[in-house]
Every structure is written in C-alpha cells, then in structure tokens.
Design a protein that fits this description.
This protein has 130 residues and is mainly alpha-helical. The protein is built from three helices and no strands.
Length: 130
C-alpha cells in the first residue's frame, strides 16, 4: 500500500495537477452550466484527493503504529481501508469517464446550420486540340 500511495502522489503532482490547470481552470466561470468536461474533473479531484489523504494516513499509521499517540489511531482500520478502496475505485471510474469525455467523444459543434466551406473547382483551360 505504501508504494501505491507514493506513486499516486507523484502522479497527482506531475500529471493530474497539470491537466487540471490546463484543462479545467481556464473554463471555470459564472457560465459553468455543469459542463462534463469541467464537472467530472472537479468531482474526480475531490474524491481522489480525499482518498489519497486517507490512504496516506493509513500507510503512516501502519508504519508508525507503535510510535503514534492513541488519539491519532482509528479503532477499526478495516472500515477506513474499505472506504479508501471504494473511493479509489470511484476515482478510477471517473478518470476513465474524463478520458472518454475529453478525448474519445468529439466536441459538440457550436452551430450546425453553417454550411461547410467549399473550395471552387479549378476550370480547365482549353487545350490546343479542342
């Protein structure tokens, strides 16, 4: 679990924060309208960050079980481990949904009434044989 927690913090720092900064923050505005390209990453971030903090606590608790004061220790660690796992699964599913919305599903066209631009055909000049 410790390895997964450490790798997750690295991924959060280098991948997810950059993607969030480039793909979500510029589109936050008063006209948000629950756009899935913005709403899904926000939900993903809240649940994922909560799960990561909880997982970090659990990993530290396992490593320093004999040193930590009693008031820091949870009584039933299995409940918190199951909660962390459930939140990680939800976060992974949301991550797949974000990928689908951002990359797999084409963006909606703004105005479908506009006809496509056509290039005029080149008229062939008459040849001397004509």
């Amino acid at each position: 679990m410790t390895t997964v927690v450490i790798i997750n913090w690295i991924l959060i720092g280098f991948l997810m924060l950059v993607s969030y900064r480039e793909g979500v923050i510029p589109y936050l505005s008063a006209e948000f309208n629950a756009d899935p390209r913005v709403a899904l990453p926000i939900i993903h971030g809240v649940i994922g960050f909560t799960a990561q903090v909880l997982a970090t606590y659990l990993a530290l608790r396992m490593w320093f079980e004999k040193v930590l004061p009693r008031f820091v220790m949870v009584r039933n660690i299995k409940v918190f481990m199951r909660l962390t796992l459930a939140m990680w699964i939800i976060t992974a599913v949301l991550g797949i949904a974000i990928y689908a919305v951002w990359y797999a599903v084409p963006a909606q066209a703004g105005n479908s009434d506009v006809s496509p631009v056509a290039t005029p055909e080149l008229a062939l000049a008459p040849t001397p044989e004509d």
